[in-house]
Write a structure and sequence with these properties.
Chain lengths: 254, 284
């Protein structure tokens, strides 16, 4: 029986004639934090977006191969893409705060599901904000615009917004690269907390961060200009192998 | 040295052009104000037309223009919104979007008088409405459709993609994304486009002269068939044709002044929202 939460099978991405990602076959276990590392432009973000089919919003990208979520194929005409994206949530590199209040931002994803009545929204928002370690900082100004928060707080607001929809998997695309050290610290310790309930897949540029939070990593490098999965395993394991093309260069330059 | 000279020449020429166009604009406005302001009074705005325009006021002309503009609004707002959503959201094929844009530009190039003639054939004769406010409103609504749609399309296109991606990433359906991301962020564009379009529609004579408006003898319509309205631009048009007497002349300019103020007011109300477009696009 397949224990991985997500498994890709020959998943490749191209834009017209240009190949962006060579076929990737990778198993991502459900527990812990799975890291994706690699040089800039290797296709890490693109790969991440294939996992909840968000890449389909970008016109001109062709996706081949398959992704299995607990054994169920995702690229299949019967799949409810919106429901999938609710289960597999995405945090972006730059926090995307909607031009509305903090409260409305937190419940942005929830307000459209009929299953949660309006009267429960405040409690839900509080729980999500607490989970994202933001509650104490914003509890007195929930009606204020979300854009008034600092970038670090905005990123935690985005996290709270995702958590409010109770996702099973959270995809994070370099969530701390735009953040100051303090906020980075806060997000990293949050990831430690969250991984008990959620599977987290984290793209990171930062080896210190990968060491600190990731249980397993995949290294995506560039071969002939196309992103290629070159190795996966624990970071120590990857470091002890010395036949991974480009990995040493990547480590030394980070 | 030579480059500096051309630089200077170019700058001077640019300034002269700007000064010239501003001067022409100010001259026209100044002339209208000078000729018309003496006849604008409370009685003029609230009185009914009498003596073939030589006496009385323009109350029902204002009302009629208001009715026409309200109808124009009700026709063009939902239509433009549908077109813009089709263009910016529902049509994924670039070629189809291009077709819509081309159609809008063609529509924009059709002269007002053609709208009038088409309206005459379709509404007045074929539908048998005679002259009707509804026909005028519909025609004006279609005439300003390009202005409204293009403004809205541009506004929707300038919504940063990250918002749409983030909303989709939360599992919102397309209709929910339209409602909670696209509409709130483009409402300003709809308002701007409508105000600019209505400002243009307010002064149009050609589309309504055969189809919707008469010079005297109409008040508030009580149906569709044979229910014309009075209107400001047609009033000015008729008075201008036989403005021999000084009474008529001053009233003609007074009516023109009122129309100019109306149109200016609409354009100025639209200004803040217009400026905001660029602001958002810069920070996008
Ligand atoms: N829509 C697209 N059309 C064409 N090429 C694209 C498109 N999206 C991404 N690419 C290309 O795919 C490659 C991978 O991009 P991607 O953003 O996934 O890299 P990344 O590993 O996340 O880089 P970074 O670390 O800088 O974020 C880049 O060379 C990029 O130019
Ligand atoms: Mg990236």
């Amino acid at each position: 029986m397949d224990k991985s939460v997500l498994r890709t099978e020959n998943l490749s991405v191209s834009a017209g004639k240009k190949s962006i990602l060579n076929p990737v076959s990778l198993k991502i276990p459900g527990d812990g934090v799975f890291g994706i590392i690699g040089p800039s432009g290797a296709g890490k973000s693109t790969f991440l977006k294939t996992l909840n089919r968000l890449c389909e919003l970008t016109p001109g990208l062709q996706i081949n191969g398959q992704v299995f979520h607990r054994g169920v194929p995702l690229y299949h005409h019967g799949v409810d893409v919106d429901a999938l994206r609710k289960r597999v949530s995405m945090i972006f590199q730059q926090p995307v705060v909607f031009p509305t209040s903090i409260f409305a931002n937190v419940i942005f994803g929830v307000r459209h599901t009929e299953t949660i009545p309006k009267k429960d929204w405040p409690d839900l928002a509080e729980r999500a904000l607490r989970q994202a370690a933001l509650w104490e900082e914003v509890k007195d100004r929930l009606k204020k615009p979300g854009k008034e928060l600092s970038i670090g707080q905005q990123q935690r607001l985005c996290l709270a917004r995702s958590l409010a929809t109770d996702p099973e998997i959270i995809l994070m695309d370099e969530p701390t690269s735009a953040l100051d050290p303090g906020s980075t610290e806060a997000i990293e310790s949050l990831i430690h907390q969250l991984k008990k309930q959620q599977s987290i897949i984290l793209v990171t540029h930062n080896m210190r961060q990968a060491d600190k939070v990731c249980d397993l990593v995949a290294f995506i490098g560039l071969q002939d200009g196309t992103g290629t999965l070159l190795a996966s395993g624990s970071l120590d394991e990857l470091r002890s192998r010395n036949n991974i093309p480009g990995f040493e260069d990547y480590l030394c330059c980070e | 040295m030579k480059r500096k000279f051309f630089d200077l020449l170019f700058r001077t020429a640019t300034c002269l052009c700007v000064v010239f166009s501003c001067a022409v604009l100010l001259a026209i406005i100044g002339f209208i104000v000078k000729q018309g302001s003496s006849a604008v009074s409370r009685a003029f705005l609230t009185g009914e037309i009498t003596g073939a325009g030589a006496s009385g006021g323009i109350f029902y002309n204002l009302v009629g223009t208001g009715i026409l503009l309200a109808t124009t609004f009700l026709v063009s707002a939902p239509t433009a919104l549908s077109i813009a959503l089709l263009h910016g959201v529902y049509l994924r094929n670039y070629r189809h979007r291009e077709k819509i844009t081309i159609l809008l530009y063609i529509l924009n190039g059709i002269p007002g008088i053609l709208f009038g003639i088409v309206g005459l054939v379709v509404f007045v004769q074929w539908f048998g409405w005679g002259k009707s406010w509804l026909a005028g409103g519909i025609l004006l609504g279609f005439m300003i459709l390009p202005t409204v749609s293009v403004t809205l399309i541009e506004r929707i296109a300038s919504i940063p993609r990250k918002y749409i991606e983030a909303a989709a990433g939360l599992g919102l359906r397309q209709s929910e994304i339209v409602r909670s991301v696209i509409l709130p962020q483009s409402a300003g564009g709809l308002a701007t486009g409508l105000l600019l379009g209505l400002a243009r529609a307010a002064g149009e004579t050609a589309p309504i002269m055969f189809t919707a408006t008469i010079f005297a003898g109409a008040t508030i319509p009580n149906g569709i068939r044979e229910n014309p309205v009075l209107s400001l631009p047609y009033h000015i048009f008729i008075l201008a044709q036989d403005s021999y007497s000084p009474e008529v002349n001053s009233r003609l300019w007074a009516a023109a002044l009122v129309l100019v103020i109306l149109v200016f007011a609409m354009s100025i109300v639209a200004l803040p929202a217009r400026l905001k477009i660029h602001e958002e696009a810069d920070h996008g």
